[in-house]
Amino acid sequence: MSQQRTEHESWGPYPLILAGAVVGVLVILLVNPRWGGFVLGAAIMVGAALRFAGYGGQLALRSKRNDVITLSVFGFVLVLTSLLLYNNELKALILSLFAP
């Protein structure tokens, strides 16, 4: 019984994040790329939150700090990009911040 417990713990929240990523890709393909990107970014940010909370499993690739930072930044950029996908006014505002 203890061997099954360690096998289960070694996966951690990985199946949950994988299911969220699959749902996000399906939403991109079948419904709307904007909402699918949002779902995919949210799933990655949930993975960052779970890694920060101490759940490692298959999500633990590097140190905890590096994993949380990498997943958080990537998830945030994906969510932001999906929100900007069809919003020309917000795109213009953000691009004006980088204009000389």
Tally of contiguous helical segments: 5
Strand content: under 5%
- Overall geometric form: flat
Task: List the uncertain runs.
Answer: none
What is the oligomeric state here?
single chain
Q: What is the rounded distance between the termini? A: 64 Å
Q: Major β-sheet, in short? A: none
User: What's the mean pLDDT score?
Assistant: 82
Number of strands: 0
**Helix-strand pattern, N to C?**
HHHHH
Helix content: over 70%
Describe this structure in words.
With 100 residues, the protein is an all-alpha fold. The chain has one domain (2-98). The chain is built from 5 helices and no strands. It has helices spanning 2-11, 14-30, 33-52, 64-84, 88-98. The chain is flat, with a radius of gyration of 17 Å. The mean pLDDT is 82.
Short description:
By secondary structure, this protein is mostly helical. The chain has helices at 2-11, 14-30, 33-52, 64-84, 88-98.
Provide the descriptors you would attach to this structure in a database record.
single chain, 100 residues, mainly alpha, 0% strand
Topology:
Elements: H1 2-11, H2 14-30, H3 33-52, H4 64-84, H5 88-98
Helix pairs in contact: 2-3, 3-4
